[in-house]
Amino acid sequence: MSKLTENTTFRRLRNRYRLVVMNDDTYEEVVTFKLSRLSVYISLCTVFVLMVSVTVALLTLTPLKYYVPGTGNTGRATKELQELKIRTDSLEQALQYKDQYLNNIKKILQGNSIQRDTAVLNVPKAEISHD
Q1: 3-state class of 20 per DSSP?
Q2: Per-residue pLDDT tens over the stretch 83-98
Q3: E strands of 1-131, at which residues?
Q4: Residue 24, SS3?
Q5: Suppose 107 and one of 3, 31, 76, 112 were both cysteines; which one would form an S-S bond, judging by CB atoms 3.0 to 4.6 Å apart?
């Protein structure tokens, strides 16, 4: 029984059909195609594989890959992010020092006293070598 169904399925795929394109006004045949289900299936699969191949090639071999989320040069982006963070931190610190400096000048000009740093620093002396 399985031999019979395989034979009929394969025979059905190989049956020849005619596709005719006709002019609607004159009923003249413009184009005629002789097709089978197998040839249509093979040609559609080939077109699909070619389209997928071209799309994958475009995305991997051209700069279009940078527009796909999750891809691209993440190492470079991480490095740039770290550099920007360091820059931002140093700018915030410089701004804080500038604000403190201006506040101290304001206090001096207004006659208010400011706190002075009176801590004694123990700085080790550099050793001088006599060679």
Answers
A1: strand
A2: 999 999 999 999 999 9
A3: 16-22, 29-36
A4: coil
A5: 112
Beta strand pairing status for 29-36 and 16-22? antiparallel
Q: How far is CA 90 from CA 94, 107, 111, 112, in A?
A: 6, 26, 32, 30
Residue 2 confidence (pLDDT)? 57
CB < 8 Å & 24+ apart, contacts of 54-57: none
Reported confidence tier of residue 4, pLDDT bands at 50, 70, 90: low
Average pLDDT over residues 89-115: 88
**Cβ density class 98-122: b for 16+ within 10 Å, e for less:** eeeeeeeeeeeeeeeeeeeeeeeee
**Element holding 123 (H helix, E strand):** none
Q: What pTM was computed for the model?
A: 0.48
Domain ranges of the chain: 73-114
**Residue ranges with strand state E in 23-73:** 29-36
